[in-house]
Amino acid sequence: MPVIAVFEGVCFGGGMQIALGADFRIAAADAKLSIMEAKWGLVPDMAGLVSLREVVSKD
């Protein structure tokens, strides 16, 4: 069963990382996405950067 994530407004941290695990991602035009842990020099839990790299390389 495919999982669909829809972004509207702000999606930071854990919410962003959970959405990265979805099969399909749909974002509103004004959506703001961020993995703030990386900005602060921390390693995101839940493999956020690995998931982001895989998603960006596909799209």
Automatic annotation (TrEMBL):
Keyword Lyase: yes
Metal-binding is among the record's keywords: no
Keywords on record: Lyase
UniProt xrefs under InterPro entries: ClpP/crotonase-like_dom_sf, Ech1-like, Enoyl-CoA_hydra/iso
EC number: 4.2.1.17
Bilayer-crossing regions: none
Taxonomic superkingdom: Bacteria
Gene Ontology MF annotations: enoyl-CoA hydratase activity; isomerase activity
PANTHER family tied to this protein: DELTA(3,5)-DELTA(2,4)-DIENOYL-COA ISOMERASE, MITOCHONDRIAL (PTHR43149:SF1), ENOYL-COA HYDRATASE (PTHR43149)
Family: Belongs to the enoyl-CoA hydratase/isomerase family.
The name this protein goes by in its record: Enoyl-CoA hydratase
Species of provenance: Shewanella benthica KT99
